[in-house]
Specification:
mainly beta, Pnp Oxidase, Chain A
Length: 148
Amino acid sequence: MASAKGITGKDLPFYRKANAADAAGTYMGMVTNGEVTETFEYDDATVPNTDAPGTVPARSSVPKQYGWSCNTAGVFDAQLFQQVRTDFLAGIPLLMSLKILKPANAGGGHFDGAVWFENIKINYDGLGVVKFSAQMRGEGMLTWTAAT
């Protein structure tokens, strides 16, 4: 069995996209801790067994809603603080891209989607490095594009 090839913080840059066609985006910083969570919400349906009507019906799950979220923490240049705060306060979804800087055969690619900031936390020190964390709620579908 092959050993797992880990992903380091330098492999997870976060980009802000001006629009959906903006393939490059504006570099916002490196994610040092984060997660992308995709979920389905289901309704239950009762399915009777027509071959054996006297038996207990089985449950069938029917997907009714897809959702995703992204929680990140990392570092970025202090000059970008105002843009992050502006995005947070704008009241419109932000187009983002989270890249995994690995070749395709090593799992590289990028997530793209629109997010609403639910909260941001900014920490800074006297060295000009701003540390941040953000909880974001996905808007629409999250897409994955494998590296080429």
